[in-house]
Amino acid sequence: MPLSHRSVRTVPALAAVLALGLTGCMAGEGSGEAPAQAAGGGTVRVDWATYNPLSVVIKEKGWLEAAFAEEDTEVEWVQSAGSNKANEALRAEAVDIGSTAGSAALLARSNGTPIQVIDLYSQPEWSALVTAPGTGVQEVTDLEGRTVAATKGTDPYFFLLQALDEAGVAAEDVTVQNLQHADGRAALENGQVDAWAGLDPIMAAAEENGAELFYRNVDFNTYGFLNAHENFLEERPEAAQTVVDVYAYAREWAQENSAETAQLLSEAAGIELSVAEAVLERTNLDIDHVPGDEQLAVLEKVGPIFVDSDDVADQEQIDEALASLVESSYAEDADASRAAELIEGRQ
Questions:
Q1: For domain 127-220, which architecture applies?
Q2: pLDDT averaged over the chain?
Q3: Which pLDDT value is given to residue 124?
Q4: pLDDT, tens only, 246-274
Q5: Residue range 123-150: average pLDDT?
Q6: Alpha-carbon Rg of the chain, whole angstroms?
Q7: Most exposed residue of 103, 170, 227, 232, measured as fewest CB within 10 angstroms of its CB?
Q8: Does the 42-124+223-345 domain belong in CATH 3.40.640.10?
Q9: What is the pTM of this model?
């Protein structure tokens, strides 16, 4: 059963957490190390990712720090270079809350990682299939017998599998190079692969550099999920609610301040402002951010692909994960004005 955030328990001291190497070649996708949890539980560990623009805004504005200041709670930020890295950090409890695509959250839950989605940060078209001029790749059927770069365990990887299935191309007839997103772009531009399952903002930067998005399908992109480890939800429900409140505040701010949001994303990701603007044009922030049936319906279509690709052992694990993945009460109770009182009182 999903955890309730109504009960409050004593927070135990945690040992030093696992250091995770977060790889990537472009600025904003560099390496990082998960910091240690402070004794006594006085720290909330949250990831930020260039594929989650709200996390960039919140981090750069210092809004979580302001919201937790009265509780004397520290905030530690850990960068995620992709959903797979966010899942690694969540599984190791190196972060309490992490950003993934919906498909990646389902994959992690299906394989035993005790996470639940507590909020939605966007409905993005962040994945597409990308090629370079001169490869001869013009449509999905052209990928048969070719090599494609993709980051396994992330939305672009599952986007690729769905596109192949739709086009009638067997997955085993395509060679997948398992590369982190930024490395996939580099492999495409260096001619090492014929195509790449891309992810924004790296994809938008590649597109501006001449890459071609030869297959797009917004329905194959799953939502942006904000996930929390179940231990954190059980031990610190009020802290989880504060994070979701700050996300509600940031969502309203980002929609009202699109130019500054693009500037912050540009600086954090090390990309041109025009690229950041293109990313945000493909990112819908004006959504019902409460996770529920609509998102689960999308994931129900993705689940069998996990089994067919041997990413999950059987459909029973998928069904169990779908039944327990969502904890909607935090998003239902989200209050931007509550966050505003804490944040604006400190500015």
A1: 3-Layer(aba) Sandwich (3.40)
A2: 88
A3: 92
A4: 999 999 999 999 999 999 999 999 999 99
A5: 97
A6: 19
A7: 170
A8: no
A9: 0.81
Question: What would the pLDDT profile of 189-205 be if each residue is shown by its tens digit?
Answer: 999 999 999 999 999 99
Backbone angles phi, psi at 334, to 5 degrees: -60, 140
- The domain spans of the chain are 42-124+223-345, 127-220
Residue 347: pLDDT band with limits 50, 70, 90: low
Q: Token digits for 335?
A: 């209050």
